[in-house]
Amino acid sequence: MQRLPSERSERVMEQQNNFNLSDTAAERAVLAGIFSYGSTAYFDVADIVSEKTFTVDSNMAIYKCIKHVLEDDDTSQIDMPTILSAASELNLSSFFDKKDEIKYLDAVGRFPVNLENVRKFAAKIRKLEIARLLDNQLEQAKGKIQNLKGDETVNHILGIAEDAIFDFGNLLNQENENPELLGKDIRSYIQSLEENPSELMGISTGYPVYDEAIGGGLRRGTVNVIGARPKTGKTLLSDNIGMHIASELNIPVLNLDTEMTAEDHKHRSLAALSEVSINDIETGTFKEVPDKRERVYRAGDKLDAMPYYHRSIGGVSFEEQLAIIRRWLAREVGLNDDGTAKQCVIIYDYLKLMTSDSISNSMAEFQVLGFMMTGLHNFALRYKVPVLSFIQLNRDGINRESTDAASGSDRIIWLCSNFSIFKKKSDEEIAEDGAGNGNRKLVPIVARHGGGLEDGDYINMHMKGWCAKIEEGKTASELRRNSGSSEQGFVVEGEEDEDDEFLF
Description:
This protein has helices at about 5-15, 25-35, 40-45, 55-70, 80-90, 100-110, 115-145, 155-170, 185-195, 195-200, 210-215, 235-250, 260-275, 280-285, 290-305, 320-335, 365-385, 410-415, 425-435, 475-480, and strands at about 200-205, 220, 225-230, 255, 310, 345-350, 385-390, 420-425, 440-445, 460-465, 470-475. By secondary structure, it is of the alpha/beta class.
C-alpha cells in the first residue's frame, strides 16, 4: 500500500532523529478527536496546545483551520469542506492542493478516537513540545560551553546553564514577558473603577457580612475556601450561595459535588426556595396541603429560570473534573477574546482525595490536596473565574479555628484568596449570643483582599436544616456591644426541629 506524503515525511523524520521528541500518531488523534466531537473536544485542549505543538506541517495547518472555524462559531461542524474553506481564507491551501494530501485530511477525519482520550493525547504532545523547547535551550547552552577557554569565572560558567533554564521559563510564560509600569494607563483604570466597580471587586455570595470580611465577595481568578466538619451543613451553604448568585444576580454557577446527586440538590433547593420541609418534598406529602403545593411549584419555576448547574463528580479523576469545567465554560458561559471566561462562578464541594493521572500512590494526603489546590488555583487564574471550594476539616477543626485544621493547609493557605471555617456553635456561644442568634458560625481566618474579623470574632449563621436554608446574622462582637441584640436576631419561633440527616 502506498503511503500518503504526510505519513512518509513522518517516518523519515523519525528515522533521522531517534530523539525526535514527537508523537505523530498522538497529533493525528487530537485532530481526529476534534473532527469527531467538534467544539467539545477543541475547547478541552485549546488551553494546552497551539499550532506550534504539532511537528508535522500538515497537522499544523489542519489545527490552524480548526481554530479559525471554531473560535469564530463554536457550533460549526468540522469536516473536509469546512477545513478547505478555512485554508483558503488563511492562505493555507497549498497544504491541501494535492490528491494525496486530500486523502490524508480525509483519513484524519475518519480516524476513531474516544472523547476522554483526546486531552490525554493533547497533554502528551504538549509535554513533547516543552521537551523540544528545553532541548533547544540546552543545545544553545552546550554551544556556549564548548567555546569556553578556561579563563572564565566559575559563576560565569554556571550562569550559562542558569540562563538557559531562566530563558526557558520565559518561553512558557510569554504573556508576562516584562515588568509593567504600575502607573501605565492609570487614568483609564481609574475610569473603569468609576464605571464598573463591581466587576473589579467580586460577586456577592448573598451574605453581606461575609462578603465585606473577604474583600467584596468572590473575585475573578481566585480560589475561596471554606472548611467544615462532616454533618455541619456545608452542602446547604454551597447551595444557598449558588442559588443566590444564579437567581438574584443571573450569573451562571456550576456546582461540582463529590457526594450528592442532582436529585438531592433539587430537593434541598426546592425546600430552601419554598420553605417547605425537605421531608415533605421527598415524600411528596406537600401535595396534601394546597399552600405548600403552590409554594413548591413556585419554587420549581424559580429554580427552572436559574442558570444553576450541577454535576456529580464522585469517582471522576481530577483531570477529567477540570475538563468538565472547561467544556461547561465553552458551552454554557462563553469565552472572551483573550480566552478567559465570561462572568460565572465555580463551586467545588469538596476538595478531597481522589484519583489522578498525575498523583502517585505514595503521596501523602496533604500532598494530594496540595496538588489539587494548585490545579484549581491555576485553572482559576487561566480562565479568570472565581472558585468557591469547600474542604473537610480534620479533628482539630472541632475545637480549633485556625489554618492548621485543614489537611494540606500550607499549600491551601498559600494559594487561596481567603480561608474561613464554618462550624456548629458551642452551647456557651449560643447562650452568650442569645438563642435567637444562630446555631452556626462562619469564621474568616485569612482574607487577602478584605479586613477579615478580629481574633475571636465570628459571623452568626442560622441553619434551618428542615428546609435547607442558612441565614446570616450579626457578628458576635456586634451582638455583645448591643445588650438587646438577641431580641433582634433570627426569628426561630415555630421552626421544626432540625434533622442532621439533611446535613452534609
